[in-house]
Design goal:
10-stranded mixed β-sheet, globular, alpha/beta, Rossmann fold, 4-stranded parallel β-sheet, 15 helices, single chain
Amino acid sequence: MKPLVRIVEQTRYEVEEIRTRAREILESEEELITGKTIFVKPSFVYPARPPKNRGINTQPEFVGGVVRALKDLGAKKIWVAEDCLVGPSQSGFLAMGVLPYLRGFAEPVYLADEPRVEVKISEPLIEERFFLPKKLIEADYFLSLPKLKVNMYAVVTLSVKNNIGLLLAKDRLTNHHYNIHKKIADLYRARLPDFVMTDAILAGQGQGPMHAEPVPLNVILAGTNGVAVDAISCYLMGYAPGEVPHLVYLAEKGTGPISLDQIEIQGAELLEKNRHNFVRPRNDLSGFPSEIQIIAGTELVCPEGCLGMIRGSLDRWLISNSSEKLAGYTFIVGKPIKEIPSGLNPRKTFIIGDCASEYKHLGTFIPGCPIPPMEITYQLTKKGVLGPLNARLRDLAWGIIAHRLGIRVK
């Protein structure tokens, strides 16, 4: 039997409209929801307030509408669980402005603070065990609410990639290089969502995940098989599902189909009507201003890892600023390095990642495989080159205070 993927029109972020749509979509799941504990996982990758995050994060109105629909269908308890890239989990919830939409309906769960349970999978591609939130394992039902967007590290971010946010930050970085698609596929098999509802009202193209530009697709995609939902989502973005290695791996494992002729599509007319060839992210060295010098290895330099981290950090700066402040900066990444020019300014030279560690004496060495995603921005800030931060400092500060004092922000 073919898995069903529903495509439902929704043109704006209005809580009560989304509540109605979500209730209609989830009615077939009512027996699995009534009286049960529901674990809801949106995507709050970057803690910026609307409208700056419209193409990046699952929107608060979307989450608010879905949790109301779950209550309408008799859910006993609803946990909305997420972490974020900048600051503690609390900062993400505050910056997103989602907490008012949860009050009286759902409890926020800050994944950075949650106890963990070891989960092992059989026949892994690269990672056999993961430490997942205890609440996820305890919940009766797992509802994934990804944002539809491109991703310079993983091609796309959809329901399969959304599971990466279940891991602690240190665990996310393991194999976040040329093995990232194998890791994503393994993690997904550790706990499959019971249902997926993808926020594609405004999707994200371009330099995602952090700097995705909003594209109105005006739909919600939904289904019980996340791989199938992601395959249809890829087609909607102008991608062939076979271009996404983690989807190919999961199809080969039998987790779900990625061929459109193996998927039942309800609302196929919306698929064709709203299909859009997304601007794809650049994760190479192209397009950087001439003032910036990047010296890359000739054999091992990972777009999914350290090279992508450079790209993301510099994109963040160059979107809103001229390149003049970065004039004379050099970034050394990968191995082997064919030639290092003489006369590098050590104050303006960064050696990025373990592969380039033999050159760490030339400037500021940032270790890791890969390096932490915000580390370049942090080091540039220390040197007086302050990039834009769309997150409000007040949100970050309150999040840090709440995290350190163990306060449950609601």
